[in-house]
Amino acid sequence: MPSYLTRRVVRSLIANEPIVHRGCLRRRAYSTLTTTSASASSRHSSGQHVALTAPPTSQRRTFFNNFSPFGKTRQETLEANTDPGIDKLMELSKKKRMQARLPSPSEIGKAFTRFFDHRQKVKKGIEDTHAQLAVEALRHIAASDGEQDGHLSQLRVIVTPGKSVFTALLRTSEPTDTHVQLAQMLYDALKSSKLTDMRVSAARTYIWVLGRAAHGLEARQVMEDLEKGEDSWKLDKTTHPHEDTEEQEISVEEQVESEAPDRGTITRSQRRKLWSAVFRATALANDETKLLEILEIMRDRGYLPLAAVADAMVRFYVRRDNLDNVQSWYQEAWRLHTSTSRHTDTMVKEVTELFRLVLQWCLSTEHVEFGHEVIRLATMRNPPKIMWDAIFVWAAGTGKGADEIGRMFNVMENSNRSTSDRDQSRVPDIATINGLVEFATSRNDPYLAERFIALGHQRGISPDSRTYVLQMEYRLKVNDVDGALIAYTNLQAMDLSDNGDVPAVNKLIVALCNSRRHDFDTIMNVTADLSDRRARFEAPAVSSLALLHLRRDEFHDVADLLSTHASQYSSSERAEIRRAILAFALDAKTPLSRSWDAYNILRSIFDEMPRPQRTEIMAHFFRQERPDLAVHVFTGMRRHSRDDTIPTIDTYATAFLECAKIRDIESLEVIHNQLKLDYNVNVDTYLYNTLIIGYTACGKPRRAMDFWDDIVSSKEGPTYNTIHIAFRACEKSPFGDLKAQEIWQKLRRQKVDIDQAMWASYVAALAGNGDNELAISTLEEAEAKNEVEIDAFLLGSLLTGAPGQEKQAEITGWAKERYPHAWEALEKIGFDVDEAGMKIAKIDRSVTP
């Protein structure tokens, strides 16, 4: 807290601005809407301070407020912090589900443009939820002019923001099938464009997304289809003057903006880059045969050698643990990287990443000899400093301690004698120490990590923000939350403009929320710091904070937290948060009011919550004997527009069975009435069975028997379970013995196989109406004909079905005298006694639909 306040005061002084404080700041710490500036991110880049203000809030609950079952205090919930244009795309998706009037294509086109321009501005990729909205938007635009003009209409929208769409896709770390679908739509719309750089960018983006989304084998087909349209593409067989003889990894912006000048033709350099992208995409598919085929195609066309291709081959065989091929291709990659006359920073970084990858693989697979060979190859020349850092990590991996690595530092420093350029001097710095600490963290060895940090102190190397981030990570791994907090405190004095600490701070928030020893204010201070910087809250952190607020009955804080951040998550991240809140709501230890709060959060924020989860919540409220809340949940499903949310037969069946358990006729009739109006559900025998069970349990067995007639007249007809259920209804219904005899006679006429359980259900139905004489005589006759064996279950069913103590006494006396062994077995099972003094045998007479 002191460091947070100090930083706030200093920023205010520098900006010559007062701090306006109204109410409790943490009440709105999550929301970006509490800032007096439209863009807090610009504040961090320009050094401007933005004061946070919050209106006074009250956490008191009143009994009659808001017409809520639990009397919530009315408070306005903050709007979602969504990207520009996304609201209109979401509106389109919802109206399509509702079959309502759709927004105009021009509105959707403008929203599409605003959204992707914003994602390019903030340098972020897109989640699968965003990609799905973009796909629906493009389909809507393409369909607006009919089939013939669809692509033209689509192109008019894409051309302006097209580069930003490609950039957003290329920045997506883990593309899904939805991203593939979006990339394909862009490619299909632009592959016949006269703008060469646009169609090349579309093709390269599509190929890249295919590879990252585990569809790499399709990338080759894309390239072959392009070359079939050679006339439209006008493939240029000459080398462009600006063409490089060696391809390097380029940034996202370069991939979509640094193509050759638009001349209407595809240059050889562009084709080579496209085939290189196909090669890398195929390498990710783990199909060696297909990969070697593409390698041969590139060799035949004169696109080889390429260092990027050799790098991809090394990575491919590393994933397959093929030592021989890793050795041969690594030597080829090393030769290509070191033989070029241009040693740019990018090239040095690429070869060092490959060097580090191979050494890590050697450590994990215990190929120590090959690792030493890689080291010897690198040290034949004086390697750059970043490569020395990788060598030190290799030394730590092979068992060398901090002292030995310290002596290796001296060896690196002595190598500077052969270098006259001071800029190329090799001296251990904090990046060297951080690499070693990161290795120790990966090995779950916090002691070794501390030794490396101490080694840095001995050499006068001060920790930087990355060091403290690593400290937080390895301390959290061993559940040292207090130690992680100390590292976090030290981190506050560092430059955090790159937000490199955000993942670790998110983990710290989760650990603090799960800890029982740290107070609420400590958690809020860490959380407020992230919010003040407009940093990303990861899904686990949001889940933990939401549960923390729910346990404190801070309903509106949960709503503000989720509405601010939930729209930025992928579908899997949203599902993770949803599952956490759902588990809290369904926990038997959670008070009912908090379960209701949790449901309202899920309903309002996570509109995509599927049917099974909503059904679980409904059943939970039934089990808590709050059928009014359960019916509310069911009605919410009934009114929903999503096909995966509206009730099905199973949903209705669950509701009817839960009503039966608590014997709530009002809720049963409400839901049954909704079933009558539901044209999406065709009532079958299974659902009729649940209705019979429900109405019988709720004291209306005669109404239940009406459904028996519906079943008999249906095409599907009754099942064995239906017959048992019908006999239970007859058992409770006035004059039900007559209906039971009618059903029984029909079974006998049709020669249906009748087992022991069916006999038990039938005689219980006879006894249920007080006709002990008929029930007993039926059993005795059946036994004489060897149709049934009198056992404990049958006697227990007969006794339980009999109404009144006098009738039960008659059956008890008869059973003891006529079947003493079966009765003795029943007595061993035991009896319960209800409030009316009636005996209930401890046998399982439950029926299932």
From TrEMBL:
<dbReference type="InterPro" id="IPR011990">
    <property type="entry name" value="TPR-like_helical_dom_sf"/>
</dbReference>
<feature type="repeat" description="PPR">
    <location>
        <begin position="684"/>
        <end position="718"/>
    </location>
</feature>
<feature type="compositionally biased region" description="Acidic residues">
    <location>
        <begin position="244"/>
        <end position="259"/>
    </location>
</feature>
<feature type="region of interest" description="Disordered">
    <location>
        <begin position="228"/>
        <end position="264"/>
    </location>
</feature>
<protein>
    <recommendedName>
        <fullName>Complex I intermediate-associated protein 84, mitochondrial</fullName>
    </recommendedName>
</protein>
<dbReference type="InterPro" id="IPR002885">
    <property type="entry name" value="PPR_rpt"/>
</dbReference>
<dbReference type="InterPro" id="IPR050667">
    <property type="entry name" value="PPR-containing_protein"/>
</dbReference>
<dbReference type="Pfam" id="PF01535">
    <property type="entry name" value="PPR"/>
</dbReference>
<feature type="compositionally biased region" description="Basic and acidic residues">
    <location>
        <begin position="228"/>
        <end position="243"/>
    </location>
</feature>
